[in-house]
């Protein structure tokens, strides 16, 4: 008997490796994937603009990265710091000039990441609900806890979503023709919008992903949303807030991601590195023993062998210092 419907993923034609630089943009789930890539020793610029949920704001970030121009600033002075309605509150300055310099620096950083050969941009869409700043008649990515009377909540139309993302992707592929895009739909439910409203929003985004995946050869879809909602489908795979996937669910999604996009050699390297990390984190009962010294020396040999294919030079240096202290 079967008690769950396991989602089987197909091997993607896009096969990635440790020479593939990554840029992640989007919801908190983009950050989760980015963190796992960083931990796996991939060259990753992880959600450098902070969590961004709606495709309109994500598209604007993409355009600004490509053009290296920032002509649509929406600064906000809270009395303590300067923020921008287009970004998460982690993007700030103690003066408007400092805020602008921070934004320009992050755009430059992202631009350089996408210029690298075999660059991959992971975009995670979270919601089709957006807030319009009435005074400027512009969509915002973050309301920064300002008075709700300043904004109007709207549901993006399918036509607007598609047109906006098409324009952003056309700009991206014109500037960086070798860039590959992986689209994911965040499995995190936006319960503050209401469960019915969340379903409408996710439906619009899933259709958008399908349209873009069908239209562009270098746009690929990874079914993180379906894995959580249809495969795992149990609250034991959620955090205490019953909204975000827990550590076990994220690990399961990561395994599916590896099956989909990584070749055999890359997965083998990841397994070796994971074992090495476990050895490096090992805490012995008795540090000043020959057995522990032998264990450290074997770990060092393993790292030096791994270093031929994966950059673990910093870990090697730190382990040598540890061995010296125990000598």
Description:
- The chain is of the alpha/beta class and 327 residues long.
- It has two domains: 22-72 and 101-262, SGNH hydrolase (Rossmann fold); 273-325, no CATH class.
- Helices cover 47% and strands 13% of the residues.
- The chain is built from ten helices and ten strands.
- The chain has helices spanning 28-39, 55-67, 96-115, 158-175, 195-215, 224-232, 247-261, 264-280, 290-306, 313-325; strands at residues 22-26, 44-46, 75-77, 82-84, 120-125, 129-133, 138-140, 151-155, 180-185, 219-222.
- Helix 2 (55-67) packs across helix 3 (96-115) and helix 8 (264-280) runs antiparallel to helix 9 (290-306).
- The radius of gyration is 22 Å and the shape is globular.
- 36% of the residues are buried.
- The model has no long low-confidence stretch (mean pLDDT 94).
Question: What is this structure, in a nutshell?
Answer:
With 327 residues, this protein is of the alpha/beta class. The chain contains 10 helices and 10 strands.
The total count of helices amounts to 10
Across the major sheet, the strand order is: 2-1-5-9-10
Helical amount: 40-55%
Order of helices and strands: EHEHEEHEEEEHEHEHHHHH
Strand pairing plus helix content: what structural class? alpha/beta
**3D shape:** globular
How many discrete structural domains? Answer: 2
Low-confidence stretches: none
What is the CATH architecture annotation of the largest domain?
Answer: 3-Layer(aba) Sandwich
State the CATH class of the largest domain: Alpha Beta
Sheet-strand content, in percent, reads: 5-15%
Examine the coordinates and then state which fold CATH places here, giving the name of the CATH topology of the largest domain: Rossmann fold
CATH superfamily of the largest domain: SGNH hydrolase
Radius of gyration: 22 Å
| Average pLDDT number | 94
Number of strands: 10
Distance between the termini: 57 Å
Largest sheet entry = 5 strands, parallel
């Amino acid at each position: 008997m079967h008690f769950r419907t396991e989602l089987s993923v197909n091997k993607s034609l896009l096969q990635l490796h440790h020479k593939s630089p990554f840029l992640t943009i989007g919801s908190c789930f983009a950050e989760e994937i980015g963190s796992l890539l960083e931990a796996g020793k991939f060259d990753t610029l992880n959600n450098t603009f902070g969590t961004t949920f709606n495709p309109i704001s994500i598209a604007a970030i993409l355009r600004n990265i490509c053009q290296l121009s920032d002509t649509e600033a929406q600064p906000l002075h809270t009395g303590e710091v300067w923020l921008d309605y287009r970004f998460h509150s982690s993007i700030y300055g103690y003066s408007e000039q400092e805020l602008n310099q921070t934004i320009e620096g992050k755009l430059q950083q992202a631009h350089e990441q996408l210029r690298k050969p075999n660059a991959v941009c992971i975009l995670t869409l979270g919601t089709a609900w957006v807030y319009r700043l009435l005074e400027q008649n512009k969509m915002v990515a973050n309301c920064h806890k300002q008075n709700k009377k300043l904004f109007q909540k709207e549901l993006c139309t399918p036509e607007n979503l598609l047109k906006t993302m098409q324009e952003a992707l056309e700009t991206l592929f014109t500037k960086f023709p070798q860039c590959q895009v992986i689209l994911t739909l965040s499995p995190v439910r936006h319960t503050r919008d209401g469960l019915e409203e969340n379903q409408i929003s996710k439906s619009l985004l899933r259709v958008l992903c399908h349209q873009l995946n069908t239209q562009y050869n270098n746009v690929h879809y990874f079914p993180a949303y379906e894995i959580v909602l249809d495969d795992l489908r149990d609250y034991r795979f959620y955090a205490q807030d019953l909204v975000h996937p827990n550590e076990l669910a994220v690990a399961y999604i990561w395994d599916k991601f590896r099956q989909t996009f990584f070749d055999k050699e890359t997965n083998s390297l990841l397994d070796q590195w994971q074992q090495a990390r476990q050895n490096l984190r090992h805490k012995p009962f008795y540090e000043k023993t020959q057995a522990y010294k032998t264990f450290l020396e074997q770990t060092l040999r393993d790292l030096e062998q791994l270093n031929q294919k994966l950059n673990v030079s910093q870990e090697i240096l730190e382990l040598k210092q540890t061995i010296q202290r125990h000598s």
